[in-house]
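Collaborator request, handled under Task 6.
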Amino acid sequence: MAVQRVLADAPDRVRTLVGISPVPASGVPFDDEGWGLFSAAADSVAYRRTIIDLSTGNRLTGVWLDQMANRSMAHSDRDAFADYLVAWARTDFHEQIEGNPVPVLVVVGEHDPVVTADVMEATWLRWYPNATLEVMANAGHYAMDETPLALVTSVERFLAGT
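C-alpha cells returned to the collaborator:
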C-alpha cells in the first residue's frame, strides 16, 4: 500500500512498482474475529505467531514461526504496529491510482490464504493496465524470507524488462 501512496502523491517520481504480498490501495476487509486477532497482535507475540502461521499456509516449522514472531516483537514499536493495522486495513485511495500506466509487478505466494492471485486480479491488475502477476511457488505471505532467491530473480527479471 505504501508504494501506491507514493505513486498517488508523487507520480512523476515513480517509474515502476513492485508489490510483494501487497495490500491493495482499497484496504483489506476484516470480520470481527480477524480484526480482534490482528489488533491483539500489537501486544502479543503469540498472536503474531498465529498470524504468521496462517498467512504462510500452516506449513512451516515452529522454530521459524517463533523466530519470525519474536523478531517482529523485538523490532517494532507497539503503537506503530497497532496504527499501521488501521492504515492498511481501513484506508481506501484506489481511485487516485486507478488507470496509472506505470509498469507493475505483483508477487503473491501460492500458500498465502489472504493476499491471493484472485485478490490481486480484482484490485492491482484491474487498476494498473501494465501490471503483471507472479505467483511464487513454495511461498506464503513472506516470500522474502521463504523463497528469497526466487523472489530476487523474479524482481530483477521484471526490472530488467522495464
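The cover message to the collaborator said: "The chain has a mean pLDDT of 96. The first strand starts at residue 17 and ends at 20. Please let us know whether this matches your experimental observations."
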